[in-house]
Specification:
By secondary structure, the chain is of the alpha+beta class. The chain is built from four helices and four strands; from the N terminus they run E-H-E-H-E-E-H-H. Strands 2-1-3-4 form a four-stranded mixed sheet. Keywords: Membrane, Transmembrane, Transmembrane helix.
Length: 151
């Protein structure tokens, strides 16, 4: 699969750090709450995630940013997180209030978290592997995602 921004037309693509414990937890959070199955996911360490990062000016070898692709385009950092929460709908739309904080401040806080994510939350030896019933939502460089155990 060769994901492009056009892939986001039917939904949204979240590019995440697959070895980061915090980031993998974020993906599990989204999988549980995204009842409309709007989101698809790509790990930064996989070919699909690397291509998406590079296509949007982010260094795949030094990923310090969260990337969201949706019908509105590409967003990073705090804007991406706010947009993801708003896409969930319901009470999560209250995340819009975070935009009252200056973006510079929000992104500074985000970058501090991103820089320290392994130290504060841990790092896995391998990428997060989706549960069998969700693997179709994960973009990979391979044509087929094999069955993987739950984490």
């Amino acid at each position: 699969m060769n994901p492009t921004p056009a892939d986001a037309a039917d939904g949204a693509i979240v590019v995440f750090d697959g070895v980061c414990v915090l980031c993998s937890g974020w993906v599990r959070f989204l999988l549980r709450r995204d009842r409309a199955r709007r989101f698809r996911f790509a790990a930064m360490q996989d070919d699909a995630g690397r291509r998406l990062l590079a296509a949007h000016g982010l260094d795949p070898d030094d990923p310090m940013s969260f990337l969201l692709l949706d019908a509105s385009g590409a967003r990073t950092d705090s804007d991406a997180i706010i947009a993801v929460l708003m896409h969930l709908g319901g009470p999560w739309r209250a995340a819009r209030a975070l935009r009252l904080l200056p973006r510079r401040l929000r992104d500074r806080l985000y970058r501090a978290l991103a820089r320290n994510r392994y130290r504060w939350f841990g790092r896995r030896d391998a990428c997060y592997l989706p549960p069998d019933d969700e693997r179709d939502r994960f973009l990979t460089g391979d044509a087929v995602v094999t069955a993987r155990p739950r984490q």
